[in-house]
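Can't paste images in this forum, so I'm doing it all in text. The chain is below; anyone willing to post the predicted structure tokens underneath?
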Amino acid sequence: MSDKFDVIVIGGGPAGYHAAIRAAQLGLKTAVVDAWAGKDGKAALGGTCLNVGCIPSKALLDSSKQFYNLAHNLPAHGISVENAKVDLKTFIGRKEKIVKQFTGGVAQLFKANKITSYFGTGKLLKGNEVEISGNDGQKQTISATNVILASGSVPIELPFAKFDGKHIIDNAGALELDAVPKRLGVIGAGVIGLELGSVWRRLGAEVTVLEALPEFLGAADPDIAKVAFKEFGKLGLDIKLGAKLTKAEVSKNEVHITYNDKDGDHDLVVDKLLVAVGRRAYTDGLLSEDCGVKLDERGRIVVDEHCHTGVDGVWAVGDAVRGPMLAHKGFEEGMAVAEWIAGKAGHVNYDTIPWVIYTEPEIAWAGKTEKQLKEEGVPYKVGSFPFAAVGRAVAMNEAIGQVKMIAHAETDRILGVHMVGPGVSELIAECVVAMEFKGSAEDMARIVHAHPTLSEAVHEAALSVDKRAIHKGN
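Text version of the structure:
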């Protein structure tokens, strides 16, 4: 036995590194085991989110938006640019620099908080010991009073469309294309499929999205999803609903696809196929047979409401456990567990976790949808307001979408807020704060919002709940 710690975290992604830093802040001797390697073969902390997920995808989304605006939005401002082109090497290179900046930043935070970092794969053994298999082939064992499992998730691979890294790709592959594909197929109209499909569509690719479910963005409010679907069509995303992939074969640098829908079987040929049908908890090799930790039917680590596994001193957080696979959900669980370990009052409110899709327009929501409230028998009232009536949105030439607020019909407490439009990834935060403090639509309606700002859409939606919006008919 080489080292004894208060806390060992297996996984250096969002949930893991937040847990580690908070534990260290609380005076606990902390270690992190993580196997992610950068392109240079060296340790790259931050997991999927920093390396091939949240951060690099937003970098490409922003870069592609700048290019798209040149031809499609700037002319309305009286600005014209001719023969604009994309240097894809610089385009991808910018993303790489941002990734390196942030993964290096996590390493510096570890150093500042005196966290010991091990580069390798961790396996939980009986008795809260962790076996580390280094990337150099060497093994060692360390132990701790508490072990936090934060192993994250990986893309789901379809048996008839296996990833080859060249023609059939996952989210990581879609961030590394060395040329804009003429034809890009996307399987899955979820967050990853829509965001990365948008990136390459803006750069000129013909993008076809196949979604097996009959409705678009089933988890979102239908009114919001309807607006988003229409706008994605304007962008040129060809989204086919109720379309189930049945076969994908690579031939002569093309991917030949067969899918079926209500009208029967169809064929489609693309240059690249992005499979984005979801992610699964990554627990391969994580647990020894006698460690006592259990997995559920979906391969997720079983935990209670405090993220405890039922094995003394063993906890689990992030994508590897129940709940939404969102980085910020993992952030909060990681910090809460560190606080529980230290005897403090950690807390995660799963009812107010915001969801965001960083497309154009952006989509964001928090809380319940109308459908959920109807199914639960909860009385409610609704207010909404369009960005078309918001001066700032019109001045920006981005007057698309709306804010929809749902409040309890009797108590007026805000139960859900759903948005599609410019900057809603930021606007949702105000609503989450109000919901966290059990605020009412009346509270939101009484708060002064600066004019002219996009946030006025939230203010007017709150007024609309009681039929007193100023800038639209009630």
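The longest strand covers residues 139-149. DSSP finds 13 helices and 21 strands in the chain.
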